[in-house]
């Protein structure tokens, strides 16, 4: 049985003390008094106004700057706030940080997961060993109130937030605004380091979610430039396994493998959720990952869709059978959608989804050199042990459970 303490706070909670929270009408699984070590419970929660650095026009100086960095403390005394904790990567990040002994506060929605399929209890069960804080990252005041109610300071914020749809407005709302809220709220409660899960594709931004991510990245870097005591790690991973597993079961059932062009238009170094979570957790303490943009892929060489398809047919014991779709078909469809958006603005997201599909069909998820317009396998660092081949084998045996794509089934 777990010895962890579950404690959660709702966004509407109007109380600010642990005692009051205990008597809230929401069920609490175990005694929250052991939620955090005693010395952290006593930690002064900084005055929000005084610490509102990111919105201040001139940098504000901390009244009593910390003599030692949170990096000098043992993990059990380091409070890590994780936003986007219920996502494909976020939930592995929470588990990895818990395993490493950090004091993890996972910020969640009351209904989380794809199409809100998880209720509060599902979320609490998922995050064994972490402290769950139900709040709303899209509303700064509510998020700050939730953190105030926790009554503790934050050392590090890890953001795995992402728009679940990739739609235009939602991308700006989540990949930029909600992530910015997490930075502002985190800093106001003492955070000295921010780990951002971004994406390698922002190197060549053609899509709205990439522009939203880049805007936040730039503001995060700016924040560290004007505040010496604050740092960041921006993690830009290549493709996730879930984005490459969509055809495994089709091939197993004898269907052809569909790819664009000759199947060599793009390549990636896929990385698994546990490996990426481990890399992100490294960013919390490792000094050599501080104030850096970190592109990262999984083990082995980069793989094109053709190579992925060949691997899949071999593993499935089937004769290779490819359908090659000219990429121009996508350009034609996108052209029509772009035209229609001028007449029917409500089609904005449909047109954007077309562009996202086109982008992933033709652009590599590798380190990009804008001067030569080339992607490089060699320049893209590798991390971890999980291979795409092992992932394909697993899906062939067990199916795609846990690897579902987001709401628009694009990524
Ligand atoms: N797919 C790929 O191959 C790939 C490759 C490289 C990088 N990336 C990047 O990796 C990042 C994470 O991807 P992922 O697949 O882990 O994302 P995901 O599974 O879609 O998770 C998104 C997280 O953001 C939260 N979120 C979304 N909308 C919200 C809202 N309105 N209010 C509160 N929370 C909200 C979700 O909470 P709920 O559970 O409550 O919805 C969830 O925790 C993204 O930035 C993506 O661009 C992806």
Automatic annotation (TrEMBL):
Enzyme class: oxidoreductase
GO-annotated biological processes: chlorophyll biosynthetic process
Ribonucleoprotein as UniProt keyword: no
InterPro entries for this protein: DVR-like, NAD(P)-bd_dom, NAD(P)-bd_dom_sf
Occurrences of domain NAD(P)-binding (ranges): 84-286
Keywords: Chlorophyll biosynthesis, Chloroplast, NADP, Oxidoreductase, Plastid, Transit peptide
A cellular component annotation (GO) from this entry: chloroplast
UniProt xrefs under Pfam families: NAD_binding_10
Pathway per the UniProt entry: Porphyrin-containing compound metabolism; chlorophyll biosynthesis
Catalytic activity as recorded in UniProt: protochlorophyllide a + NADP(+) = 3,8-divinyl protochlorophyllide a + NADPH + H(+)
Single annotated GO MF: 3,8-divinyl protochlorophyllide a 8-vinyl-reductase (NADPH) activity
Primary location class: plastid
E.C. no: 1.3.1.75
Subcellular location: Plastid, Chloroplast
UniProt protein name: Divinyl chlorophyllide a 8-vinyl-reductase, chloroplastic
